[in-house]
Structure formats: structure tokens, C-alpha cells
2-(1,2-epoxy-1,2-dihydrophenyl)acetyl-CoA isomerase PaaG
Amino acid sequence: MSNNQQPNGPVKLSIDGHIARIHFNRPECLNAVDVATSQGVLAAAKAIAEQPGIRVIVLSGEGRSFMAGGDLAAFQAAGDAASDKAHEIINPLHQGLKLLAELPQPIISAVQGPVAGGGMSIALFADFVVAADNTVFNSAYINVGNNGDCSGSWSLPRLVGTRKAMEILLLSDNISADEALALNLVNQVVPLDELGTATDKLAGKLAKKAPLAVASTKALVRGSHNNTLAQQLDLEEQYFAKNAGSKDFSEAINAFFEKRKPEFTGE
């Protein structure tokens, strides 16, 4: 099944089979986030949450940049009302990210070109990041006199540690695709003209896995930082026992002994 919403808007949502794609669509300004973009992310997240059968979510950006951060022109135009404008832009965007974070599906960011500010935060918000070889990350916030948003200050310490996260956020140096790979900020680096193919391959591979097992594994890994070892062991047992009663687990066991590939239904 294919579904498209806001085909000409700043955020395009398409659903093809088990894969949902959220595509940022303001290439003329490097997909900078304005109010409409924030509202579009929230609307897309709500639509995905209500759509059964989705197994993977892909984030991508039109043009030469995944996303270059917030729309600074909107803040300049707001003048003395910049604080109100910040809430107007950030709140729906954060609500959308919160909703996406609560979903069981793995999220992939496919990034290229300049990826700065909120763009970097949103890219790292995902469970997987596929980067084109021309990608350049920059936290950027400190250069415009502010702190980060879109979960960057949450993701970075978990990915690179507190000390390196502080360096990235406070110094705002450029980080090349290869440097990002070495820092564990991305999963793979591919030639720009292979970004779509590599992302589709990863999404397709994930979509073939057992959805319940994928969801529980994501929940365990994402929640591990807040759990003691004893709590984590208890949760692993609970999830494993629950999944053991699923049709997909039975299918996987039977497929193993019958020497064939399993076909998962998410039940």
C-alpha cells in the first residue's frame, strides 16, 4: 500500500508497504525548520502511529542538505517576540519527536550535505544513521548564541560520552562523514549517489525481521541507560517470555528446523 500526505508541503509523508518515510521538503533553504515544518513532523508522527503494519521509519531531506537547522530568518523577523517564536517552532516539533520515540519501529536517518543544529539533533535521534560521503555535521547552536534542541543534548552523551559531547556542542567544529563514523555518530558512510539505495537496503532488511522482537529489542536498548543490571535482566525475561508466546516466535522456530526463511506477520 502506498499513502502520501502533504505532497507539496514542507514535510512529505509516504507509506509504501511496511516502510514509512518522512521527507523534509524545503530544499531552497536547506530544509530549515519553520513552524509549518514542525507542525508537519507532528502530523506525520500522528499518522504513522495510527497506521498498522509499519515496521520501519525513514527520515530524509530534499536537495543538497538533510537539514541545516532552524529557520533563522523566522527568528530575525520575530524581533522582540523571538522567545514566543521559539516556542511556536520547537513545541510541535518536540511533540512529534516524543511521539516518534514512543513508537516501536526502528528509525533510520538518511543524511547528506550540511547537517547542522536541529538537523544534526534529529539525525542522531534515529536508531540508525546512513550518511553520504559529503555529509558535514555541526552542532551550530553555540554559534547563534543558544543551546541545542531536538534531543541533541540527550543523544550525544549516550553516543560519544559526556566529555566528547561537551566538546562537540561547545566548540561547534565541523565533523566529516568519516569522522562521524569513527565517533559512532553514524552506522555507515556511502557515496552520495548510493544514499537512497543503501537506505532502502537497510530499511528492507529491518522490515523482514520479526516486528515484536524488533520492538522489544529497541525498548530494551533505549531503556538500558535508566535501568540497573537487575532491572534489565528482569525486563529481558519478561519480553522474551511474552515474545515466546507469539506466532512469529513459533514461525521462526519451525522455519529453523525446516531449514527455510521465516515469514513474520507481527503477531
Observations:
- The CA atoms of residues 18 and 158 lie 29 Å apart.
- Residues 82-102 form the longest helix (21 residues).
